């Protein structure tokens, strides 16, 4: 099956831009979740009322960079996929 290159029209450019913006919003959601886990974990560790569940605070603090790393990896992976996208249609 042969492919011919097709020129992109305005609608296609706008769809690519929407996809890029959605990718950035998704990363910001990962970032926000990571910051929330970090803040909650530190709060649980430092508040004396929660001394019995300090392990939960440490768990949240340790989970925070993992979530951030997943978000960063996903951001760059999807960005790379968007950049490599070749718009060809069959003849």
What report would you give on this structure?
The protein is mainly alpha-helical. Helix 1 runs antiparallel to helix 2 (54-84). It has a domain at 33-84. The longest helix has 37 residues, at 10-46. Helices cover 75% and strands 7% of the residues. It is built from two helices and two strands.
The best one-word shape is rod-shaped
Largest sheet: 2 strands, antiparallel
Number of strands: 2
Q: Please, how many helices?
A: 2
- Main β-sheet, spatial strand arrangement: 1-2
Radius of gyration: 21 Å
Helix content: over 70%
Structural class: mainly alpha
Order of helices and strands: EHHE
Q: Round the mean pLDDT to the nearest integer and report it.
A: 86
**Which stretches are low in confidence, meaning pLDDT under 50 for 5 or more residues running?**
86-91
Terminal residue distance: 8 Å
What does this entry show, briefly?
The chain has 91 residues and is mostly helical.
Features:
91 residues, 2 helices, 7% strand, rod-shaped, disordered C terminus
Describe the SSE topology:
Blueprint: E1 3-5, H1 10-46, H2 54-84, E2 88-90
Antiparallel strand pairs: 1-2
Helix pairs in contact: 1-2
